[in-house]
Amino acid sequence: MSEASSLHVAFIGLGTMGQGMARNIAKAGFPLAVATRTSGKAEAFVRTLSAEGRDARAARTPAAAAEGADVVVSCVPDAPEVEDVHLGASGTAAGARPGAVVIDCSTIAAEAARAIAARLLEKGLSFLDAPVSGGQKGAVEGTLTFFIGGDVTALEKARPVLEAMGRRLTALGPSGAGQLGKAANQILVANNLMGVSEALAFAAKAGLPLTSLHEALTSGAANSWALEVLGKKMIDRDFKPAFAVKHQQKDLAIVLRTARARGIPLPGTALVHQLLTALEASGRAEDGTQALLTVYESLGGGR
Amino acid sequence: MSEASSLHVAFIGLGTMGQGMARNIAKAGFPLAVATRTSGKAEAFVRTLSAEGRDARAARTPAAAAEGADVVVSCVPDAPEVEDVHLGASGTAAGARPGAVVIDCSTIAAEAARAIAARLLEKGLSFLDAPVSGGQKGAVEGTLTFFIGGDVTALEKARPVLEAMGRRLTALGPSGAGQLGKAANQILVANNLMGVSEALAFAAKAGLPLTSLHEALTSGAANSWALEVLGKKMIDRDFKPAFAVKHQQKDLAIVLRTARARGIPLPGTALVHQLLTALEASGRAEDGTQALLTVYESLGGGR
Questions:
Q1: What value of ipTM does the predicted structure carry?
Q2: pLDDT tens digits for A254-265?
Q3: Which chain B residue has its CA at the smallest distance from A215's CA?
Q4: Which CATH number fits domain B181-299: 1.10.1040.10, 2.60.40.2310, 1.20.1300.10, 3.40.50.2000?
Q5: pTM to 2 decimal places
Q6: How many CB pairs under 8 A join A and B?
């Protein structure tokens, strides 16, 4: 821990994912500075950490949080926010010392990640794109999977901080490769979600006992994380968000643009994107993605 | 075992699945009679079982196999064959004694299963539709999942025989319900396959290291049996059939007809069916379904 705790960390963005991730960094013993867009949120978060005896401070801007940091982590909505918190007037690059490693855990386009990496490099900062899989649960429990693009030396320097947040660090290549890996992840997540929605909408209409069927389906070649977790929620008609439709849609828009630019058509993923557009149109953009079931129910004339 | 071995069993159809299933019945101690369409195949199979000390005999026709049987099991390609082996001139109904339970493990339409059940009932025979999931591996190892439709009393009578072949018996309702459950299974299998094909075709074109990526993807919310097993084969470019494209296509044609009849559109499943039609057109109908990857490669202008 002594070596690890010698790394000072700044964390930008305390959303659904960021809170659990930042907390795990502090719990691992790293001195932590946090900054958020929402006024007062960083202060409240730091009060909780301080009550637990952690070394944490709130900063008014990303630049102020990054002062004295060896590793800067961000987890924000999309590319414009990533650019702003690192390269804006009060961004981390304005406060960080040369040689610091900037890690962005947001899901953004690979091209955007590469552009940000190049601009930070001009300022003497290393950049890793490190989007995650594992959801809020993984963020809280410190079991995230990181898809990592960027310089291997920077990764080795930041490794203890990443290991405080996740169970698996997968280096996939140069800047942008982490985002490409996350895109592959979202392609799978989307198609698996469609399969579960179609299977359960069909089974319900066919009058099958869904709980028994679910047990049988999860025991064989039809199984998936989506069937186990989202299928269970569909059967329970629990449409609360763990991963909201609007976030899935943002990610799929990135995936489809990226794939088109590389000349690889993704008809299945494009179809899920359209069906989720119908779901958004029905007023469920804030629901969990498992609400896709209701699109099939409406296509089939109701439950 | 003494109670179990009091049940005499007839088994019709010694294909990829049937051989393992029939062998497990004999190994569990049930006196077994087998019949197949292919001349000489039943005799060769029985010689192997006899050499292992099992109580087995070959019969020239399904009717002859069914003589004296308490439980009759069939595993054949499609509905016409199921109808023929049970209701044809030398079908099992012509040899079985009243009260025998007929179990069909083939994947056929629910409507066809219901019609066969009704005709067998007129002859004093019970019928269970019991299609399976788990593939050749599950058949050999006795770990199949059975989706079961039909009378519960018949199921209880036949249970020891089913338990010799599988690990999970799921009763889903009256005649045809087993086939509807298997249709839900095939919907999931098809969509998951599409997701794996799209993700890996994308990742390859993006230049990502596929083996590392596969490890990361299987550790989180993107995981599925299809990713673990078929994804691995795609990366190894192993297109040998465990489940052949032509069989998947037969099953999906049944699924789509059944769903349409019930008024539930399945756009994702329909899309996989079309992409697999392209795969058949490219000369790969006998390959394993994981060859779907090659359709994406051809759409994307090659590997």
A1: 0.95
A2: 999 999 999 999
A3: B170
A4: 1.10.1040.10
A5: 0.95
A6: 258
